[in-house]
Amino acid sequence: MSTTNQLDQLKQFTTVVADTGDFASLKQYAPRDATTNPSLIFKAAQMPEYQYLVDKAIADNKSKAGGTELLHLVLDDLLILFGNEILKIVPGRVSTETDANLSFDTEALVAKGRQFISLYEKKGVARERILIKIASTWEGIRAAEVLQRDGINCNLTLLFSLPQAIACAEAKAKLISPFVGRILDWYKKSTGKDFGPAEDPGVVSVKEIYAYYKKFGYDTEVMGASFRNVGEIQELAGCDLLTISPQLLGELQKTSAPLARKLSPEIARETKLEKISLDEKKFRWLLNENAMATEKTAEGIRLFNADAQKLAQFIATKL
Hints:
By secondary structure, the protein is of the alpha/beta class.
């Protein structure tokens, strides 16, 4: 009987990342990296213990501008301040998300990515420790391609399908975050059925992406994201990275049942998969053919934008 808890077992073959803006959780579960998004930052910014970061972002920018311009400066700075604090706790990288309302604007995304890196570098943070998060739209993937050539690493998020994953790998994105739980949500709603972890459509999707990358020799890292239950995580043990909420990290820590490795490059290379060649027309067609991926990408962008707006309103009341 294994006495090591499942979180420690998972760490032996998968890089564990914490999906939170809450520093206490980071200290508790000792992940290597951390990911944030507008929803998580909005949640953390309202917590009394992080009020000092909100105050600092406002104080540091008050004299630079007024009105909407000041609000934008404060919001960007707040993301960087959270990222900077997180990097004092985790030994690896933090993912900082670009504005959801730029998801279809390649040039604006490139500019935002460069801006974030320059803000971090002013704080003495090396760009190797930052992942710029961008939605996996065609325009977002093109922006990542430009940023990667600049030596700025990107995390392509809101990713729900193999065509999105292939386009990211061909753009040489550093990392992708295929969503698991949101895929499950869509299938449960559209079929009215429940799925066990092994049949979970989100799990199946990430396994296929992982296998494709390993079989065809892509370097892009696969980081499963958006989990609804521990079963999904257990099924993806062995994936390059998994980003997990504090609640599910806690559940993994509480159980010491043996955890089997389910994904490995060796098994992946044996998978029967055909290579798909993509250009913009093919990408848009395949994504359009996948109702779940089309709906979930669009919805994810809307939801992140809504939370970014809520954060902006919250900050505006303090200016």
